[in-house]
Design goal:
The chain is α/β, with parallel strands linked by helices. The strands form four sheets. It has a six-stranded mixed β-sheet. Strands 5-6-7-10-12-11 form a six-stranded mixed β-sheet, with no helix packed on it. The longest helix has 13 residues. The C terminus is likely disordered.
């Protein structure tokens, strides 16, 4: 990678928080109102001081939560000490069912970029690209088009995607939805590709392009993970897994009960 005049960039990469799932988490008794996974991201964001927080799909597990719960999640996103880049995944599709429909202004006001396509942050110092999931089908290609982006000099190019990594030799018989190929990662020429969908940490870098799955912050059995990514101007990319356990959480989960009535649920 050629040397470019740009400042170091620190990313906090997380995905698959599945808020509203009701899975038992770290002794939390809030059930489907639990926001422990998001609070874990917030805790690491406060301690690690990233320039950007990347949430690569499946922020919500389903639409069967109250609108009050959605608003509490948006409020937590607004407490992040850095701008948040949010991508829709297969559990929180960016379609008419989205819990975030009609809340775009609130997201922007809280420093959240709800990504679908290409955009810039930090006065153009960082280019972002990602395809929001609207249909989770084998025909949907999360990274299709990433390689067509015009990279500007002295600009970091960060790609987000939510899907299933498939080796080139397996693609002809692939039956999984939202496939991501190593050739698509390499063709993106991104400085970093942040992926979601897999619930474990995985390095799927290709063609000199660093690409990682962050795993999920909190698993039903207990601790999970996210990634701290440090990008240096000379081209170095350092990825550090961050564990999540009870000590990471800032305090008890105290969001309102989430049980939704029919009129409150989309």
């Amino acid at each position: 990678m050629s040397v470019r005049e740009r400042s170091p960039l620190r990313l906090l990469h997380a995905s698959d928080l599945h808020l509203g799932s009701g899975a038992p988490v770290l002794g939390c008794g809030e059930g489907r109102a639990c926001t422990c996974a998001l609070r874990a991201v917030l805790a690491h964001a406060r301690s690690q001081r990233p320039d950007l927080v990347l949430l690569c799909g499946d922020l919500f597990d389903n639409v069967r939560v109250s609108l009050a719960f959605v608003d509490s999640v948006i409020a937590l996103l607004g407490q992040m000490p850095a701008p948040v880049v949010l991508l829709a995944g297969n559990h929180d599709l960016a379609d008419e069912s989205s819990l975030l429909r009609g809340r775009e202004a609130r997201l922007r006001g809280g420093g959240v970029v709800y990504l679908d396509g290409e955009t810039d942050v930090f006065d153009g110092a960082v280019q972002l690209w990602g395809r929001a999931t609207r249909e989770h089908r084998p025909e949907f290609r999360p990274l299709a088009g990433a390689g067509d982006v015009d990279h500007r000099p002295a600009t970091w190019f960060i790609v987000l995607g939510h899907g299933h990594y498939v080796a080139e030799e397996d693609f002809a018989t692939n039956y999984r939805s939202s496939p991501i190929l190593p050739s698509e990662i390499a063709r993106s020429r991104a400085d970093y590709v942040a992926l979601g969908h897999w619930h474990h940490v995985a390095d799927v870098s290709a063609g000199g392009v660093p690409a990682w799955y962050s795993g999920t912050p909190v698993t039903p059995g207990g601790s999970g993970s996210m990634l701290l990514v440090d990008l240096e101007p000379e081209g170095a990319c350092r990825v550090t897994p961050l564990a999540v356990d009870a000590e990471v959480l800032a305090g008890p989960c105290t969001t309102p009960l989430e049980v939704a009535s029919e009129e409150e649920t989309r």
